[in-house]
């Protein structure tokens, strides 16, 4: 069962656009348009590690991670997909799923080690129309959100 | 089925101690003793993303990730566990499972964004006896490697 009283962490809410919500999770788009794109899946839960989710919710979340990974690959053809649960700064459980390219601003480093100083050199934010386009692609992806 | 002709990537082999090997995977210990400890699980496969593993091998690997995570928590009581598949530098599929502490050298950053310059300031390598102790704890962990 998804957690009662769940609310999205305020930092995730500030840094991301919410693309989609189900009883089990939210799918967020990190508002850094130089990564094409950087998704964050947030299970509706109060636990801090994936292994602590209830078995049924874990199954759903693993299916959603696989679905987002396939969607990224099909739609954006990245050179690599980086997937991680970190949670050192935001303790609410969340899964990063990031399309990476050889020419993106911090290749071959990780997006998490990238300093805010480096980030400030790039135009970062999506336009509303760009967010809507990504949301629509996600909603249209066969089998991903069903 | 595990891949035929699999051999461990030379950079992983150089940077890590092999603790354990099964038909499906290797468990490595990153030779950076300031992280207590940093495991790497390497499926015996030629694919580059977890979702591309054969269903049976994926099931085994997910069970091993969960087992290593529980082992880290029980044995080392970290403040957080960081889990990731990155593969930007070493394309061979491998899963990082890292015990993190508020007082470790790069908290709250990630171990992957940590520069070699910063790393060189710390004594890094395990002694053979320390590796053996960790291997023995791993081998003794109930249900992990069975």
What does this structure look like?
Two copies of one chain form a homodimer. Chain A is built from four helices and five strands, in the order αβββαββαα. In chain A, 34% of the residues are buried. The model of chain A has no long low-confidence stretch (mean pLDDT 91). In chain A, 31% of the residues lie in helices and 21% in strands. Chain A has 146 residues and is of the alpha+beta class. A five-stranded antiparallel sheet of chain A has the order 1-2-3-5-4. Chain A has helices at residues 10-15, 55-76, 116-119, 128-140; strands spanning 16-21, 25-30, 38-43, 80-85, 95-100. Chain A binds chain B through residues 48-51, 62, 66, 69-70, 73, 80-89, 91, 100, 107-110, 112-114, and chain B through 48-51, 62, 66, 69-70, 73, 80-89, 91, 100, 107-110, 112-114. β4 (80-85) of chain A pairs antiparallel with β4 (80-85) of chain B.
Biggest sheet: strand arrangement of chain A:
1-2-3-5-4
Strand content bin of chain A: 15-25%
Poorly predicted parts of chain A: none
**How do the helices and strands follow one another from N- to C-terminus of chain A?**
HEEEHEEHH
The share of residues in helices of chain A is 25-40%
């Amino acid at each position: 069962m998804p957690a009662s009283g769940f609310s999205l962490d305020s930092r995730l809410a500030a840094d991301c656009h919410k693309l989609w919500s189900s009883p089990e999770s939210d799918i967020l788009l990190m508002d850094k348009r130089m990564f094409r794109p950087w998704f964050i899946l947030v299970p509706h839960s109060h636990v801090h590690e994936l292994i602590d989710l209830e078995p049924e919710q874990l199954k759903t979340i693993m299916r959603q991670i696989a679905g987002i990974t396939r969607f990224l690959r099909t739609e954006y053809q990245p050179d690599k997909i980086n997937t991680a649960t970190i949670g050192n700064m935001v303790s609410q459980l969340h899964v990063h799923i990031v399309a990476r390219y050889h020419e993106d601003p911090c290749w071959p480093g990780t997006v998490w080690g990238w300093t805010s100083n480096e980030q400030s050199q790039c135009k970062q934010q999506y336009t509303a129309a760009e967010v809507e386009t990504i949301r629509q692609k996600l909603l249209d992806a066969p089998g991903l959100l069903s």
